[in-house]
Amino acid sequence: xxxxxxxxxxxxxxxxxxxxxxxSDGKEFTLFKSLYGEATDIQFNMGFTRxxxxxxxHVTIDKQxxxxxxxxxxxxxxxxxxxxxxxLVTDFVKILALTAAGNLTEHYTPLNLVSGLPVGYxxxxxxxxxxxxxxxxxxxxxxxxxxxxxRRININKVKIIPQPIGSVFNLLLDDNGKLVExxxxxxxxxxxxxxxxxxxxxxxxxxxxxxxxxATTDTGISKSFSLIARKLREECGVNxxxxxLFDAVKTGFxxxxxxxxxxxxxxxxxxxxxxxxxxxxxxxxxxDDWDMDTILLTGGGSMELAGxxxxxxxxxxxxxxxxxxxxxxxVQGYYRYGRYVWPExxxxxxxxxx
Length: 354
Prior knowledge:
Elements: E1 10-16, E2 20-24, E3 29-33, E4 36-38, E5 58-61, E6 64-68, H1 70-75, E7 79-80, H2 85-104, E8 110-117, H3 119-133, E9 135-142, E10 148-162, H4 164-172, H5 182-185, E11 188-194, E12 199-205, E13 208-217, H6 221-236, H7 246-251, E14 253-256, E15 259-262, H8 264-285, E16 294-298, H9 300-309, E17 317-318, H10 329-341
Parallel strand pairs: 1-8, 8-10, 11-16, 16-17
Antiparallel strand pairs: 1-2, 2-3, 4-6, 4-7, 5-6, 5-9, 9-10, 11-12, 12-13, 14-15
């Protein structure tokens, strides 16, 4: 629960995906599933361990109580989860973003926040998203021991950028917002950002965003999850929610009503098909961009699909850093971009086109 103290403007990066919500203040990360549910009375707490704030997300926002993330998955009878962009912005963004923001800051000090939207939805939703997040907010966190922790947050400025740019800024900038990868900044970079619901394709030529070749498709890993869920429903008659498949897809096994199902072969098949679709989309969108220097795979879905995808892409693919969680690339880049746009107090604010 560290904060950015000292003379620096408090900056947060918040990345609200269909699968997970991520936040960074440059020192700490928060990550939880993008779902919420009704808050119910939990009559008994086992009390074996001290529960971290991030895993017990029982919050009150605007006088409405929610369970958020995995806590909603475990405890709520009615859960809200969406794969619709308009619903995500209208009904989910404020709850998820403020829960993440309050989890990263303890102070009422004005914050500047950077977040993102898929390329194909940026124009339509970025102004609405700004309005939802800016201003004064209070978030109450209700702990298992009955204690309530209150965070009062003033979000002073909000910048919304196309999501894949976050991964580029993560590569180019350091935690102080300084340009450190000058050679890469002179290159033409293609970004394939594989999320839960969407895949974004973006091109940056010498730090200039190229509209041609930048697009959003609906080939996120949720399609693969849906195929796995459909097969499980045929075999065992249980409708497994997509957000409950993450661990099973990772391990290749799921236990349903005492019986273990091996889904590794099916997982590899559907991931291979998804990778082929993404590779075909890339070839079509970037047919005129044969002078690409580097192609960057990023987003949570890249961790699952990289092994299937890299061999199908023509061009120089930047190796995926296996020691880091690719889900955090964008949000870390949002934070670093925020530090570039809003530098130390007293320093002139650089001109940066949104």
